[in-house]
C-alpha cells in the first residue's frame, strides 16, 4: 500500500523535482519544501495545481511541524560553486537540517531517507569505491563544509537509528546529470554543454585526466525509490551511481561531438581537493535493491543537451 503523505526536502532542486514528479505519478501525496537557494518553482511548475502536490517555502535549518509518513531529505546545494558560496550555511543545512528532519521522523514515526554523496569518500585510495571504505576527506579545505557536513549527517542518521530505533535509509549518490540541472552551477556536465551550445571555450580543469562516473537522473531516482521501498532493517549506506568511468577530457569530447560545436577545449587550474578518480561499486545496490543503471552516457547526454537547447532558446 502506498503511504499517505511524503515529504521531499529540497524538492524544487534538480533531483528533488524529478523525485516529486515520480511520486505524484505513482499516486502519492507530496509535500515539497525548499528555501529556493538553488532550486526554483520553475522546476516543479508542472506539478503546481495538482491535488496531490503541495509546495512550501521552508528552510530545513529551522524545525518543521508536519504530519508525514515518509521523508526524503535532499535539501542541500550540491554543486561546489553553490555550496562554497556560504560554507557555514552549507554545514548548517547538512547538520541542523538532518537533526530537524530526524527529529520530525522520530515524532511522527516516519521512514527517512538521506541523500548522501560519494563526497564522503573524498579523494579515494580505494577504487572503485565500496560502501565499507571510510574515505579520505580533508576536514579544513574548501569542499569540507559539504563533505564533512554530509559525513556528519550520516553519523546522525545511524545514531538516531541506534538510539531511537528510527527507520533510516542512506544512499550515497555519485555524480548525476540530466534536465533541470542549474545552467550556472559550475558542475561539469552543465558547464560543458552550455559552453558548447554557446560556442564558448570548454573549460577543462587541470589536465582533464581526473575521472567521474555519471548517472542519468531517471536511473538515480529509480534507485532512490527502490531504497526507500526496501525491506525494513536495511539501512545502507548504499552507493547509487553509474560505474561507467570517464575522464573529463573524454566527457568534453563527447559533448563536442553530440552538440556539433566548434568550441575549443581549454585548460584551467584544478580546484583545491578535486578528487582524482571516482567510480561506484554498485554490487550492494544490485543484490539488495535489484537495481542497476540503464541509460548509457551518450543517450543521457542527448536528453540533457536537448533540455539546455530549449532553455537557452527561451
Ligand atoms: P540542487 O542544488 O539542485 O537541489 C538542492 C535543493 O535544496 C535546492 O532546491 C535548494 O534550493 C534546496 N535547499 C538548499 N538549502 C536548503 C535549506 N537550508 N532548506 C531548504 N531547502 C534547501 O542539488 P541536487 O543535485 O538536486 O542535489 C539534491 C541532493 O542530492 C543534495 O542533498 C545533494 O547533496 C545530493 N547529491 C546530489 C548529487 C548530484 O550529482 N546531483 C550527487 C551527490 C549527492
Ligand atoms: N570540471 C571541469 N570543468 C568544468 C567544471 C568541472 O573540468 O567546467 C571538473 C572538476 O574539476 C571535477 C569534475 O569536472 O574534476 C567534476 O566536477 P563537478 O563540479 O561536476 O563535480 P564533483 O567535483 O563534485 O564531482
- Strand order, largest beta sheet: 3-2-1-4-5-6-11
Q: How would you classify the quaternary structure?
A: single chain
Q: Based on the coordinates given, report the CATH architecture of the domain at 5-177 and 215-243 and 279-294.
A: 3-Layer(aba) Sandwich
SS-based class: alpha/beta
The overall average pLDDT, rounded, is 96
Shape: globular
Count the beta strands.
13
The CATH homologous superfamily of the domain at 5-177 and 215-243 and 279-294 is called NAD(P)-binding Rossmann-like Domain
What's the main sheet like? 7 strands, parallel
User: How widely separated are the two ends?
Assistant: 41 Å
Please state the CA-atom Rg, rounded to the nearest Å: 19 Å
The arrangement of helices and strands along the chain is EHEEEHHEHEEHEEEHEEHEHH
Spans of at least 5 consecutive residues whose pLDDT stays below 50 are none
- CATH topology description of the domain at 5-177 and 215-243 and 279-294: Rossmann fold
CATH class of the domain at 5-177 and 215-243 and 279-294: Alpha Beta
| Alpha plus pi helix count | 9
Proportion in helices: 25-40%
Bound molecules: nicotinamide-adenine-dinucleotide, uridine-5'-diphosphate
Strand content: 15-25%
What report would you give on this structure?
The chain has helices spanning 14-25, 80-85, 87-108, 144-164, 188-198, 217-228, 248-259, 283-289, 297-313; strands at residues 5-9, 29-34, 53-57, 70-73, 111-117, 168-173, 176-177, 202-205, 211-213, 215-216, 238-240, 245-247, 265-268. The protein has a domain at 5-177 and 215-243 and 279-294: Rossmann fold, CATH 3.40.50. The model has no long low-confidence stretch (mean pLDDT 96). The strands form 4 sheets. A 7-stranded parallel sheet has the order 3-2-1-4-5-6-11, sandwiched between helices. The chain has a two-stranded parallel sheet with strand order 7-10. A two-stranded parallel ribbon has the order 8-13. The protein has 314 residues and is of the alpha/beta class. The chain starts with a strand and ends with a helix. It is built from 9 helices and 13 strands. It binds nicotinamide-adenine-dinucleotide (NAD) and uridine-5'-diphosphate. The site of nicotinamide-adenine-dinucleotide has 29 residues, from α1, α3 and β5.
Amino acid at each position: 500500500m502506498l503511504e499517505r503523505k511524503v515529504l521531499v526536502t529540497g524538492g524544487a532542486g534538480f533531483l528533488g523535482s524529478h523525485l516529486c514528479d515520480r511520486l505524484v505519478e505513482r499516486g502519492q501525496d507530496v509535500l515539497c519544501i525548499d528555501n529556493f537557494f538553488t532550486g526554483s518553482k520553475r522546476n516543479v511548475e508542472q506539478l503546481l495545481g495538482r491535488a496531490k502536490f503541495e509546495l512550501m517555502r521552508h528552510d530545513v535549518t529551522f524545525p518543521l511541524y508536519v504530519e508525514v509518513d515518509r521523508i526524503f531529505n535532499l535539501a542541500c546545494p550540491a554543486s561546489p560553486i553553490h555550496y562554497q558560496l556560504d560554507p557555514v550555511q552549507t554545514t548548517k543545512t547538512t547538520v541542523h537540517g538532518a537533526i530537524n528532519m530526524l527529529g520530525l521522523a522520530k515524532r511522527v514515526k516516519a521512514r527517512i531517507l538521506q541523500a548522501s554523496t560519494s563526497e564522503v569518500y573524498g579523494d579515494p585510495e580505494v577504487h572503485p569505491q565500496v560502501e565499507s571504505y571510510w574515505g579520505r576527506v580533508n576536514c579544513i579545505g574548501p569542499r569540507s563544509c559539504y563533505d564533512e557536513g554530509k559525513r556528519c549527517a550520516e553519523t546522525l542518521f545511524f545514531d538516531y537509528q541506534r538510539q531511537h530505533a528510527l527507520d533510516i535509509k542512506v544512499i550515497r549518490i555519485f555524480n548525476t546529470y540530466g534536465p533541470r540541472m542549474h545552467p550556472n552551477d559550475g558542475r561539469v556536465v552543465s558547464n560543458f554543454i552550455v559552453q558548447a551550445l554557446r560556442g564558448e571555450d570548454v573549460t577543462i580543469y587541470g589536465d582533464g585526466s581526473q575521472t567521474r562516473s555519471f548517472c542519468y537522473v531517471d536511473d538515480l531516482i529509480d534507485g532512490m525509490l527502490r531504497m526507500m521501498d526496501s525491506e525494513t532493517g536495511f539501512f545502507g549506506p548504499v552507493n547509487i551511481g553509474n560505474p561507467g568511468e570517464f575522464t573529463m577530457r573524454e566527457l568534453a569530447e563527447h559533448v563536442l561531438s553530440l552538440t556539433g560545436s566548434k568550441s575549443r577545449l581549454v585548460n584551467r587550474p584544478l580546484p583545491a581537493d578535486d578528487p582524482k578518480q571516482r567510480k561506484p561499486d554498485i554490487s550492494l545496490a544490485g543484490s539488495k535493491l535489484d537495481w542497476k543503471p540503464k541509460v548509457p552516457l551518450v543517450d543521457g547526454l542527448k536528453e540533457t543537451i536537448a533540455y539546455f537547447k530549449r532553455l537557452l532558446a527561451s
